[in-house]
C-alpha cells in the first residue's frame, strides 16, 4: 500500500492558485480576492494568504495598495528579457548536461518524451505543459549544478503561462517535441556543441511563438 505524501493546507492552496494562474483561469491583470479564493478552494484564509505571499515572491501575483492582489500582467518586454536570460543559462545547462548526464537522467528524459508523444496524440495541452516543465527540470538536474538548476526552475515556472497561451495548435506541439528530441539526442551522444545549438533553436522558437501570440 502506497501512502500519499502529506501536503500542508498552504501547499495545497499554493498549487491550486498557481495552477489557475498558469492556465489563465485567473487571467493576467485580474484582481483576486482572498475570501473568494478561500471559498473556491474550500480552504481557510490563512493558507490562502500564505500561498499568495509565496506567489508574490515568485512574481506571479502583485499586491497593489487599495486594489488588492493582482495576477501579474503579461508585458511583452518583460517576457523577452526573461527569454534572453533563459537563452544564456539554458544553453549552458544543455552543454553541461551533455557532459555530466548519468544513465538515470537519460532514462528519465526518454520517458518524458514518450509521454509527451502520447499527450500530443490526445491533444492534452495541460499534460504537455507539465511535461515541458519536467523535461527542462530534468536537464537542470542532469547539469549537476544545483544553483543553475534552481535559476532555470524559477525561469521556467514563470514561463509556463506563456507556454499555455502560445501553444494552442498541434503543429506547435509537434515542432517542440522535435526540438526536445534534438536536445535529448545530443545529450545522449554527449555532444556538447550540438546540445547547446539544439537548445538555442528551441528557445528561439519559443521566443517567436510568444511574439506571435501576445
Helix content: over 70%
Low-confidence stretches: none
Distance between the termini: 47 Å
The oligomeric state of the chains shown is single chain
What is the 3D form?
globular
Please state the CA-atom Rg, rounded to the nearest Å.
18 Å
Write down the overall mean pLDDT: 91
Structural class: mainly alpha
| Number of separate helices | 9
- The order of strands across the largest sheet is 1-3-2
Share in β-strands: under 5%
What is the ordering of alpha helices and beta strands?
HEHHEEHHHHHH
In total, how many beta strands? 3
Largest sheet, described in full? Answer: 3 strands, antiparallel
Question: Could you characterize what this model shows?
Answer:
By secondary structure, the protein is mostly helical. The chain is built from nine helices and three strands, in the order αβααββαααααα.
Record keyword descriptors for this entry.
three-stranded antiparallel beta sheet, mainly alpha, 214 residues
What order do the helices and strands come in, and which of them pair?
Elements: H1 9-22, E1 31-32, H2 34-41, H3 45-57, E2 61-64, E3 68-71, H4 76-100, H5 103-122, H6 125-143, H7 146-166, H8 170-188, H9 192-213
Antiparallel strand pairs: 1-3, 2-3
Helix pairs in contact: 1-3, 4-6, 4-7, 4-8, 4-9, 5-6, 5-8, 6-7, 7-9, 8-9
Can you describe this structure in just a few lines?
The chain has nine helices and three strands; from the N terminus they run αβααββαααααα. The chain has 214 residues and is mainly alpha-helical.
Amino acid at each position: 500500500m502506497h501512502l500519499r505524501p502529506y501536503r500542508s493546507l498552504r501547499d495545497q492552496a499554493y498549487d491550486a492558485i498557481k495552477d489557475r494562474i498558469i492556465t489563465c483561469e485567473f487571467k493576467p491583470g485580474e484582481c483576486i480576492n482572498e475570501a473568494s479564493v478561500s471559498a473556491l478552494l474550500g480552504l481557510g484564509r490563512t493558507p490562502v494568504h500564505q500561498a499568495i505571499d509565496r506567489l508574490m515572491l515568485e512574481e506571479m501575483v502583485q499586491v497593489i495598495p487599495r486594489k488588492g492582489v493582482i495576477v501579474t500582467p503579461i508585458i511583452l518586454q518583460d517576457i523577452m528579457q526573461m527569454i534572453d536570460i533563459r537563452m544564456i543559462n539554458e544553453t549552458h545547462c544543455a552543454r553541461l548536461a551533455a557532459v555530466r548526464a548519468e544513465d538515470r537522467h537519460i532514462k528519465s528524459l526518454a520517458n518524458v518524451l514518450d509521454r509527451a508523444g502520447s499527450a500530443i496524440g490526445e491533444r492534452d495541452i495541460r499534460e504537455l505543459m507539465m511535461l515541458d516543465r519536467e523535461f527542462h527540470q530534468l536537464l537542470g538536474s542532469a547539469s549537476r549544478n544545483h544553483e543553475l538548476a534552481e535559476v532555470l526552475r524559477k525561469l521556467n515556472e514563470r514561463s509556463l503561462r506563456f507556454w499555455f497561451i502560445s501553444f494552442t495548435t498541434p503543429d506547435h506541439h509537434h515542432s517542440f517535441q522535435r526540438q526536445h528530441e534534438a536536445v535529448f539526442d545530443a545529450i545522449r551522444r554527449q555532444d556538447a556543441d550540438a546540445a547547446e545549438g539544439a537548445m538555442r533553436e528551441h528557445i528561439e522558437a519559443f521566443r517567436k511563438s510568444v511574439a506571435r501570440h501576445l
